[in-house]
Automatic annotation (TrEMBL):
Keyword RNA-binding annotated: yes
Listed name of the protein: Transcription antitermination factor NusB
Cited InterPro entries: NusB-like_sf (IPR035926), NusB_RsmB_TIM44 (IPR006027)
Annotated NusB/RsmB/TIM44 domain residues: 12-139
Region (Disordered): 168-218
Keywords: RNA-binding
Length: 218
């Protein structure tokens, strides 16, 4: 009875979620639609004193929406036991726990302590260490993936900022180039170039030719 007094509302709802996952497993209900149909039925008709609601519904829906991803994570985190080789309670405790870790956003410590407590209550003493080991390895994998994803986002932001800086620099460069530099030379400059050879220079050249040379020319 002392154990029951320490149970929180969330603990109770985790157990209600486990009830549905266990029942679906026993009945061979493996699709999202089948699992959600069973959930809807148990929300209306349940033999439990406290029917599933709120937080328990969220866990079942999270698993139903990501059945393949959750089961794959469990397999990846279990070193020696595949899902079919696990006992039904352990397998579905792990499904509820990993769905909560991956898609509900509960803190790691709370998930591990709460679901390990359900295993201790409903399965065997040997199962507790096994399930805790799988949950911890899964949590490590999830945290590494989140860290890598965050790093990728940070690098992408840096690249975008660099690109934006380059574009801004190019735009500034265009703004700093005077329009006159892109136009043809002004008319005044062309006039000066033409006036560099005045008519007087031709006459002076002719005067500089000695008269003797002119006389020798037939």
């Amino acid at each position: 009875m002392a154990k029951q007094n320490r149970r929180t509302a969330r603990t109770t709802q985790r157990q209600r979620a486990l009830d549905i996952l266990f029942e679906a497993d026993e009945k061979g209900l493996r699709s999202r639609e089948e699992l959600l149909a069973l959930l809807e039925e148990r929300q209306v008709l349940s033999t439990a004193q406290t029917p599933i609601s709120g937080f328990g519904v969220e866990i079942v829906r999270a698993y139903a929406a990501h059945i393949g991803d959750v089961d794959t994570m469990i397999e990846a985190s279990s070193e020696d036991w595949s899902l079919p080789r696990m006992n039904t309670v352990d397998r579905n405790c792990l499904r509820g726990a990993i769905a909560e870790l991956m898609y509900v956003g509960t803190k790691r410590a709370a998930v591990i302590v709460e679901w390990a407590g359900l295993v201790r209550l409903l399965s065997t003493d040997k199962s507790v260490g096994f399930v805790m080991g799988v949950m911890n390895r899964a949590a490590d994998i999830i945290e590494r993936e989140e860290a890598h994803a965050q790093q990728g986002v940070s690098q992408q932001v840096d690249v975008e900022m660099d690109d934006a800086g380059l574009i801004a620099a190019l735009q500034r460069g265009q703004e700093e180039t005077p329009e006159e530099a892109l136009e043809e030379e002004p008319e005044a400059t062309r006039k000066d170039a033409l006036e560099e050879t005045p008519e007087e220079s031709t006459e002076e050249t002719q005067k500089e030719v000695p008269e003797e040379i002119l006389e020798e020319t037939p």
